[in-house]
Design goal:
This protein has a single domain, classed as L-asparaginase, N-terminal domain (Rossmann fold, 3-Layer(aba) Sandwich), CATH 3.40.50. The chain has 4 helices and 10 strands; from the N terminus they run E-E-E-H-E-H-E-H-E-H-E-E-E-E. The longest helix has 14 residues. Helix content is 26%, strand content 31%. Helix 4 links the parallel strand 6 and strand 7. By secondary structure, the chain is α/β, with parallel strands linked by helices.
């Protein structure tokens, strides 16, 4: 991997809460700061494309993501995305040939102590460097095929689905 393209779309990973977890805004992308703090040994470039909760990402946003990623020269792409509609976005991105794309996010904001954000980002970085071209989801310590995973909202985790 010569260089990693990171596309940020918002979601919980970048949320800033103003009270006990109800009034929020999607803030600046956190992934660049996280990777710099960790001293990663690869080059990366961040495109801050959207700042949306994934419940509000629509087909127009997904097409914008697809067109933006397809137009970039990098073949390795990490996408930060809200967890509620991550699977739907991954299915749209599957139309992009010859790129390894890994979507990840967080169930708790990166700004929160004990957030799963850094772990999920680390898992996604390892995955994007080692997988064949295609689209994948990195959550809860696993790499998932978007056609065979779902978010279990009640358990607040990703799990295998019938696909």
């Amino acid at each position: 991997m010569d260089s990693l393209l990171i596309v940020t779309t918002g979601g919980t990973i970048d949320k800033i809460y103003f009270d006990a977890k109800s009034d929020y805004q999607v803030g600046d992308p956190q992934i660049g700061r996280i990777l710099e703090d960790l001293g990663v040994a690869f080059r990366f470039r961040v495109i801050a494309l959207l700042r949306k909760d994934s419940l509000f990402i629509d087909m127009g946003d997904r097409e914008l993501m697809r067109a933006t990623i397809e137009a970039q020269p990098e073949t390795h792409v990490l996408i930060t995305h809200g967890t509620d509609s991550m699977v739907e976005t991954a299915k749209v991105l599957a139309a992009i040939p010859n790129k390894v794309m890994v979507l990840t996010g967080a169930l708790n904001p990166a700004r929160f102590e004990g957030s799963d954000a850094e772990f999920n980002i680390g898992c996604a970085v390892g995955a994007v460097q080692s997988l064949a071209p295609g689209v994948y989801i990195a959550m809860n310590g696993r790499i998932w095929d978007p056609a065979k995973v779902r978010k279990n909202v009640d358990a607040n985790r990703f799990e295998a689905s019938e696909g």
